């Protein structure tokens, strides 16, 4: 993986990288930086010119060395969105970012999101962007809402492993799924990992790689120039022609959320006939073996709805039986009274 890091470094300078090792199997891939989907200093015209490739939203500000999505001030939100839709099939987005602020651990928030979505420039509650989005969201969540709520209610979470924050997670939505902010997106999470990304003196990077319908997220946050696996999900079908963007929000707690660069690489890979068939175009995001919505219930033997229906109809049957019983009993009593007189 170290060779890969060096490869990316060179790619940043030359624009083209020769060979890239992907996971365990060495697969040959050409990597080519796409300027129209990249945001690199000097950020020419961003926030000033309407012909710029990137557009600012909310409190986002362009500085010389970075774009500040939010300052370390309460209740701010900001975003920067690519104006050009991306029609590449296989790509890799390298995000160079910095999160820093005055707040002590867990007294900071809320983090930022990286988007590949149908719509752009839509403010909302999901890290400053629209909920029920259509596409892919990758969240660098620096505040554990769920854990803090449970602490307040003096309850311990009983539904799974506790996640340690800051936490990187990902979600794919076809517009019908909502991000559960109070649970840090746990019900809709496809995958994630802990990532200590705050107040570091070295550079921090996140990579989203989308090759042959496989979504992987890698991190280089330890200052060792090494990529660490975070998420790896096959069978993620994303339509082409969506927009890249990053957004951030602060609430009662805050942080500086800075984007130093966004570099999008086109990846050229060879596909077999079978892979071509499998990777055919989609018009809405789809994840294999997962129903949208209702991701959280697909793994269980009986879904909540099925259980509800069984209980509901059992109760209806019971009430029905009781009513029939009462009617029959009354008839029988009437009959016996008639017999008596
Ligand atoms: Ca959170």
Summarize the structure.
The chain is an alpha+beta fold and 341 residues long.
* Individual helix count: 4
Portion of residues within helices = 10-25%
- The amount of beta strand, in percent, is 25-35%
Supply the helix-strand structural class: alpha+beta
Describe the sheet with the most strands: 9 strands, antiparallel
CATH architectural group of the largest domain: Sandwich
User: Which residues form runs of ≥5 with pLDDT under 50?
Assistant: 1-26, 294-300
Notes on the protein architecture:
The protein is of the alpha+beta class. It has 2 domains: 2-297, Sandwich (Jelly Rolls); 304-341. Helix content is 19%, strand content 32%. The protein contains 4 helices and 19 strands. Strands 1, 2, 4, 5, 7, 13, 14, 15 and 18 form a 9-stranded antiparallel β-sheet that branches. Strands 3-6-17-8-10-11-12 form a 7-stranded antiparallel β-sheet, with no helix packed on it. A two-stranded antiparallel ribbon has the order 16-19. A hairpin with a 2-residue loop joins strand 13 and strand 14 (214-220). It is elongated, with a radius of gyration of 26 Å. Bound molecules: calcium ion. Calcium ion is lined by residues 110, 141, 143, 145, 184.
């Amino acid at each position: 993986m170290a060779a890969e890091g060096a490869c990316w470094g060179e790619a940043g300078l030359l624009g083209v990288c020769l060979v890239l090792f992907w996971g365990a199997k060495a697969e040959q891939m050409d990597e080519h930086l796409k300027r129209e989907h990249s945001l690199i200093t000097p950020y020419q015209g961003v926030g000033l010119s309407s012909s710029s490739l990137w557009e600012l939203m909310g409190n986002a500000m362009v500085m010389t060395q970075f774009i500040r999505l939010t300052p370390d001030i309460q209740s701010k939100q900001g975003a920067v969105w690519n104006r050009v839709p991306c029609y590449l099939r296989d790509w890799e987005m390298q995000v160079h970012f910095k999160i820093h602020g005055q707040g002590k651990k867990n007294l900071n928030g809320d983090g930022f999101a990286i988007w590949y979505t149908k719509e752009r420039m839509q403010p909302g509650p999901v890290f400053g962007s629209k909920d029920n989005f259509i596409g892919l969201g990758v969240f660098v969540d620096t505040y554990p809402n769920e854990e803090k709520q449970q602490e307040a209610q003096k309850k311990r979470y009983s539904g799974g492993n506790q996640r340690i924050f800051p936490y990187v997670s990902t979600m794919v939505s076809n517009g019908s799924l909502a991000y559960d902010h109070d649970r840090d997106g746990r019900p809709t999470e496809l995958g994630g990992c802990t990532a200590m990304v705050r107040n570091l003196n070295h550079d921090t990077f996140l990579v989203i790689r989308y090759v042959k319908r496989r979504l992987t997220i890698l991190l280089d946050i330890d200052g060792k120039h090494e990529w660490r696996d975070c998420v790896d999900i096959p069978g993620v079908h994303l339509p082409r022609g969506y927009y890249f963007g990053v957004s951030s929000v602060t609430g009662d707690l805050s942080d500086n959320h800075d984007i130093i660069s966004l570099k999008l690489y086109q990846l050229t890979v060879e596909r077999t006939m079978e892979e071509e068939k499998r990777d055919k175009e989609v018009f809405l995001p789809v994840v294999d073996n997962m129903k949208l919505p209702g991701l959280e219930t697909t793994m269980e033997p009986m879904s909540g709805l099925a259980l509800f229906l069984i209980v509901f109809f059992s109760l209806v049957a019971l009430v029905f039986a009781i009513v029939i019983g009462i009617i029959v009993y009354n008839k029988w009593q009437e009959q016996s009274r008639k017999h008596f007189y």
